[in-house]
Amino acid sequence: MRRILLAALCWVALDSSAQVPMSQVLKQMPDSIVPYLSENNKLDMIDFLDSKMKAEVHNLLDGRSELLTLTERSAALQLNEASRLDIRLLDVEEPIDSASQIVCLVSTYGTDVQESRVAFCSLRWHPLPTARFITLPAEMFTASFSDDAAHPVLSLRMAHQLDRPANEEQKPIEETTTNLKWSGKTFNKY
């Protein structure tokens, strides 16, 4: 009985501090995140990418979705011609749902003019309040992650094209980029 109890306690301790691979997170992603990607679609994309094949599947809307990249800590999916989903695992200093990581989702919509949304979830896919981790601009923005695994940086790019008067249509579009670095608790300017 003691051995079983000791083994269970070790498993719980490891579970709370172990790093979960992105492939596992992607497999467990609920249908509510991308309703037109079935569980089999997600599994097929991972298998195709592991086999060095193009990770493209027919989704439930009779369109095509593709897993562009998959690393231990991130994934990028082109859901359709006008929608992309970037997923990033972030280490947290204080465990959430008994895990030392959370999931950051960046959904980008549009073709010519794009807009992003940023959301956070626990590894059990419970939604977390976005304002707890980041202060987002009030205007339209697009977001993208850096490739730095140790210290993720989220870049927010705001294009001030909708505020321009019609007579300024020939002038270049003014853009502002803000880089935010993950601290283990929040994204902060650096």
List keywords for this structure.
alpha+beta, four-stranded antiparallel sheet, 11 strands
Protein model, in words:
By secondary structure, this protein is α+β, with helices and mostly antiparallel strands. The protein contains three helices and eleven strands, in the order αααβββββββββββ. The strands form two sheets. A seven-stranded antiparallel β-sheet has the order 1-2-3-4-5-6-7. A four-stranded antiparallel β-sheet has the order 8-9-10-11, with no helix packed on it. Strand 1 and strand 2 form a beta hairpin. Helix 2 runs antiparallel to helix 3. The longest helix has 16 residues, at 2-17. It is globular, with a radius of gyration of 19 Å.
Q: What overall form do the CA principal axes indicate?
A: globular
Biggest sheet details: 7 strands, antiparallel
Helix fraction bin: 10-25%
Order of helices and strands: HHHEEEEEEEEEEE
Residue fraction in strands: 35-45%
* Low-confidence parts: 1-16
Number of strands: 11
Q: What do the pLDDT scores average to?
A: 86
Structural class per helix/strand content? alpha+beta
Counting DSSP H or I runs of 4 or more residues, the number of helices is: 3
Distance N terminus to C terminus?
52 Å
Rg on CA atoms, Å: 19 Å
Strand order, sheet with most strands: 1-2-3-4-5-6-7
